[in-house]
Structures are given as structure tokens and as C-alpha cells.
Amino acid sequence: MKILYLETSSKNCSVAVSDNEKLLCICEEVSENYKQSESLHTYVEWALEGAGISLKEIEAVSLGKGPGSYTGLRIGAASAKGFCYGLKVPFIAVNSLESMIEPFLGQNYELIVPLIDARRMEVYTAIYDGSTGKELSATEAKILDENSFEEFKDKKVVFVGDGAKKAKDILNLPNADFREDIYPSAQYLIKKTLEKIEKKEFEDMAYFEPFYLKDFHGVKKKGS
User: Fold this and answer.
1) DSSP of 32-97, one letter per residue?
2) Residues 27, 51: contact at Cβ < 8 Å?
3) I want to staple 123 with a disulfide (CB 3.0 to 4.6 A). Which of 61, 73, 110, 115 is the partner?
4) CATH number where 120 lies
5) Are 11 and 161 contacting, i.e. CB atoms less than 8 angstroms apart?
6) Would you give the distance in Å from CA 36 to the centre of its chain?
7) Euclidean distance between CA atoms 155 and 9, whole angstroms
8) Same domain, 124 and 25
9) Spatial separation of the C-alpha atoms in residues 24 and 65, rounded to whole Å
10) Is 189 left (phi over 0), alpha (psi -120 to 50) or beta?
11) How many other β-carbons are positioned within 10 Å of the β-carbon of residue 222?
């Protein structure tokens, strides 16, 4: 089954194509300027070309549904819906935090904690078992302080994501590792997507909304 994956929830605009669990091509770029609107469809073209298949051969589309950038999520969701509607294929959505833990599973960490920067001292986070990837604590918006995650001070834990930088500066966890260079990536949506396809856990295109976690607050221009 040939599947197209879109992950636009962060600074990493990421597109992948797989044939079942085999990754055929990944095309992604981390940009401080959030380039989803100008890059996403180009990356889809490049990923399909790299995979050696045409768009009409795609049999399902999977989206990293957030949490993350409001605008990035809107762009990703609109594109995924458009592809599914045009191709008449099923639509799958996966929590973007789950794509961040995949590279760290089985690496001798007891816990993996993704942290997505949500401005100021706030992060989007959840807690996962380091060997099985099982979700131990549901996704939430959390304000960091020096007492955050102190219950893990005797555990081997890794914090991953662009929110790990501010966590490292404030948390009192000498045994923890921090990897701030990790972003959600389309290539790590494959496993969870195939599980959802197996269970026929498809999204309703008409009613699907990305996983925002918070309401959008726009910035008002001066003098308007």
C-alpha cells in the first residue's frame, strides 16, 4: 500500500512516501520562517518523484495532526484533505509527538518526553515509555518551572524537541538528556499509520480539525 505522509506542525516541513512499512522517500527542511505554505506542495512532488511513483498511485494520506504551529497545521490539514478528496483515498491522522519519540525507542531510556515550544515557558508535551512507546501521560500544554518533571529525577529520561532548550536551562534533572534538534518528521508516522489502517481508524474529512490544544491568538498590527 503506497502512502503519502505530511508533517507540518513545526519548523520542519516534512513529506514522506512509503510502500507499507518501507520508506521510499523523505523530503524535509527545518526553517525558522515556517515555509509550509511555499514548500509543502513542492516537497510532495519531489517525494513522489524520489519514490518513483505518481500521485494517482497513492492509496492513503497520513497527517501529523499536531499539536504545534496553528498555521502549519491548517496548511497540512487542508492539503491532506484535498489529496484524499481528489484521490478518493482514506485519511489518517497521528499525534505529531509520537513521531518525535520513534528514533529514541529501545535506546535504554525509561521515559521519552517530547517538548514542543509553545512560546514563553509553555510547551506541548506527553510522556511515553522508553521501550514500548506506550503513552503514559496524555498530551497537554504545560508551563515549565524548576519543579516540572521532578518525579523523574531518579529515572533515565530524554527530553526531545525545540522546547528542550528552555527545559534544560530550568529543570533540576542531572540524569536527563536533552535533544533540542528533534522535530516531528513524516518518516516516523509510518508505524502508527499502518496500525490505524489495520484497525480502520480513518478520519472524517468533513469534520476533522487538527489537534491545536490551544485557541489561536493572532498578533494585532500597530495602528490598525
Assistant:
1) TT--HHHHHHHHHHHHHHHHT--GGG--EEEEE--SS-HHHHHHHHHHHHHHHHHHT--EEEE-HH
2) no
3) 115
4) 3.30.420.40
5) no
6) 14
7) 29
8) no
9) 22
10) alpha
11) 5
